[in-house]
Amino acid sequence: MVTDTPLLRVEGLRTALGSDGNNFDVVTGVDLELREGETVALVGESGSGKSVTALSIARLLGPRLRTVAGKVLLNGKDLLSLSEKGMRQLRGRDIAVVFQEPMTSLNPVLRIGTQLAESIRRNPVAASSVRDRAIALLKSVGITNPESRIDMYPHQLSGGMRQRVMVAIAVAARPRVLIADEPTTALDVTTQAQILDLMQARMAEFGAATLLITHDMGVVARYAQKVNVMYSGGIVERSDVHSLFAKPAHPYTRGLLNSMPRLDRPRMGRLSAIEGLPPSVLTRPKGCPFQPRCAFRIDKCSQKPPLESIAAGHEAACWRAREIASLPLDDQADAPAMRSGS
Amino acid sequence: MSCFILRRTLSAGVVIFGVVTVIFVLSRLIGDPIALMIQPGMTVADIEELRAIWNLDAPIPEQFIRFLGSALTGDFGLSIWQGQPALGLVLESLPATLLLTSAALLGALLLALVLGSLAAIKRDSMLDRTLMSLTLFGQSVPNFWLALMLVLVVSVHFHLLPPAGYGTGSHLVLPAIALGLFPLARLTRLVRAELLDVLSQDYIRTARSKGIAPWLILVRHCLRNIAISLVTVIAVDFGTLMGGAVVTETIFAWPGMGRLMIDAISHRDFPIMQAGAFVVALVVVLTSLIADITYAIINPRIRYA
Ligand SMILES: Nc1ncnc2c1ncn2[C@@H]1O[C@H](COP(=O)(O)OP(=O)(O)OP(=O)(O)O)[C@@H](O)[C@H]1O
Ligand SMILES: [Mg+2]
Questions:
Q1: Number of domains in chain B
Q2: Counted domains in chain A
Q3: What is the A11 CA–ligand 1 centroid distance (Å)?
Q4: Is residue A55 part of a domain?
């Protein structure tokens, strides 16, 4: 059941580095929407601000980062205006997070079972059944032999196992919104697919919404219904998966898609990754942040393009979005242009 | 495991041998004990006879060998001043010292956990800054001065606690404070630093993301990790405190090893010094062994390694 009012709605989220006067925006004003039962992807290169966005939503930023503007509405209630205590009551049950770093995100001195039980106990549950629930959860995320693994310490598990445990911890309290920050990076493809499948199955069971953060367009195509493409702290394109893959309207999205290895096209020597590096938060150019790397750059790009609708359910932040969306997606056409443009 | 025990036993043996040797040499350097025992009217023969009782007539290397031989059987000779077995006298005074040092260290540790956690949680607040200044003060106040001030203010002026003596809990308070202030200050700083480090770890963020209570995060997720680094420091502190107890015990007339040793030194009573050094070395070695075992128990990463 997909209702019309979004479960989670992020408006104008801005998160900055530094707690004093001279702030640098890491997230420059992000809008997102998640509806019940939906999986929405947030994609972008390393350093584009995906994790900071996720942590801002869950209010789990470290001391150096601070959300300075925006709203995070969960069922219409603004999380950013809640007290720390009020926020704590929502964490785990209403909004849960799978963190990016499986090696450091589990406490090294506590058993897996203990760490899992903390999440299970967020809902009323008989003390005697906590262990059984924990074993069942471990099993549901594909951990073999959960009866003995439950008493192990994190260092006794492989990276893939730990990531499964992280997923189990996040879904244990049946959250309504799950933020999964690259839940499968650094795992082999088979394990990756397995964990994502299991995670999706768990979330589908209780009709929750997932914000899936990744930089893998293959993962997006397989698991998400909607995509937000993030570049240098802002959303540059937003669409349902089909039109994004069929008609990418932002040059950066084209670059991401072209950098995917594809079987249905002739091999091209090398994969065309996007030339150049994304700007750091300190050296972000005026106007469109992508212009130094862009093959379609025009003079107007020194003004920042707004995120505008170019078709039903498809928005892009590029002055030439409509024109670019109508071009065939062909790495031969724009990859050399990209190279010469940089 | 058995290899570990063997290694520890060997190194403990080396440490104790070293300490005992150093004390043997030092106690010969501070002067001739017999010179203090000479009474008017003693003949040279009487004096030589006294020397022979403690083997002092033999060459030093021979004295050392004989000393080691009997020490191995637990015989450290008779106290020159009190005429009783030296080891017995030392062991009699050991419980008082252990009571004082344990009370000081335990009190310091518990208080340091509370104060250090407060300082870390309220980082950069007034409270944090005040506590950190106080710990600097606490680390720079000389032990004996603090002891004297405590006696002066608490006992002499306000008559709240006895100024000296042994036996009841109220006798323990002042010496324990005098001895415990330094480790309290040091451990408070350490707890704060360790907690700040732990609080910035990814797994604390995971714990927070579950929505569990802050005290649970502190007690379950932080303290256990901090304890791993504290254990070793505490073991070292325990040895240092046994040394510091010498001054404190003297000021408060606390009948422990510290006072016994001071008396022994002023009487050049080398059997007591040697037995005392042996016992202190043994206690320190045992403490560090206990610390290593505790470390292995609370740190799962080395238990299975
Ligand atoms: N705690 C922090 N202190 C300083 N800078 C930070 C901090 N966290 C993130 N940043 C900066 O913010 C920017 C965005 O980082 P973020 O971790 O959100 O990227 P990401 O999109 O998640 O990348 P990745 O795919 O590598 O996870 C980066 O330039 C990073 O250097
Ligand atoms: Mg990230």
A1: 1
A2: 2
A3: 20
A4: yes
